[in-house]
Write a structure and sequence with these properties.
Length: about 260
């Protein structure tokens, strides 16, 4: 189960990938070929926290590339292309967190990480090799990631309606780039990430004297991504709107649903 939502990343120019003229990352629907035997983990050593450290942001960018793209193993130069995608996402992520992207009041990268030692029994070391970083002398791996965005809308996505008026500039938030390493699905990591993101959104505090933190949180999800829809619904999100069919066709992607939850 890969968890897909809107993702403000960068365009690619390769014959092996679809590219949307006005988007910066291709989000592919989950197919049966992407189902993996889950690897059960000890969540007592799981850490979920905000980060602006570059080594963690790089690891998160690599996880997003391997989660949101399907690659043909026989493609020439595939490793170079993966690195290109990761570098573009890494730079865009740093800019969003630093407040250099127009339209985003605040962006936080939230990562779920595990010690490398717990993942050495994975049948493929691709995850550990690509998404590893060091913290306090310990090697850890980013196994889940998402962005919490304080903004009125996300590029090329249908816009939430709550709250109305000028408060929407400060009190409306969106989750994006939500993904969990495919090897670790069915461990509840998606639920843990979403739960943590609600606390982050609520805890951003007051802006001036009129507005508090995020009160209305949104997420976009493809209509054919049943695992992701179940995740969000069980996390308290409800349906608010859906993307017009013409817009999905224009952007060459599955139609999206817009889900909402009110935060206390």
């Amino acid at each position: 189960m890969a968890l897909l939502s809107s993702s403000p990343s960068l365009p690619v120019s390769s014959p092996n990938y679809r590219c949307y003229p006005s988007r910066r990352l291709c989000l592919n629907p989950i197919t049966a070929t992407q189902v993996f035997t889950p690897h059960h983990i000890d969540k007592s050593s799981l850490t979920i926290s905000e980060t602006s450290e570059e080594d963690q942001l790089w690891a998160a960018a690599c996880l997003r590339v391997r989660s949101f793209h399907e690659f043909k193993p026989s493609t020439f130069g595939i490793q170079d292309h993966k690195r290109y995608l990761a570098e573009r996402e890494f730079e865009a992520l740093k800019e969003r967190i630093a407040g250099k992207r127009t339209g985003f009041n605040r962006v936080s990268c939230l990562n779920a990480t595990l010690p490398l030692s717990q993942l050495l029994t994975l049948p493929d070391d691709d995850l550990c090799a690509q998404c590893k970083f060091s913290e306090n002398g310990e090697d850890r791996v980013v196994v889940g990631t998402l962005d919490v965005n304080q903004c009125t809308s996300l590029p090329d996505e249908i816009t939430g309606k709550k709250p109305e008026g000028i408060e929407g500039q400060f009190s409306r938030g969106y989750l994006s780039n939500v993904c969990v390493a495919k090897e670790l699905h069915r461990n509840g990591l998606g639920y843990d990430l979403v739960a943590k993101s609600k606390g982050v959104a609520q805890g951003w505090g007051k802006l001036g004297e009129l507005f508090s933190g995020i009160t209305d949180l949104y997420v976009h999800v493809a209509v054919n991504n049943e695992p992701a829809k179940q995740l969000y619904m069980k996390s308290g999100f409800i349906y608010e709107n859906d993307e017009p069919a013409w817009q999905a066709r224009f952007l060459d992607r599955p139609r999206r649903l817009l889900l909402w939850i009110g935060l206390p």
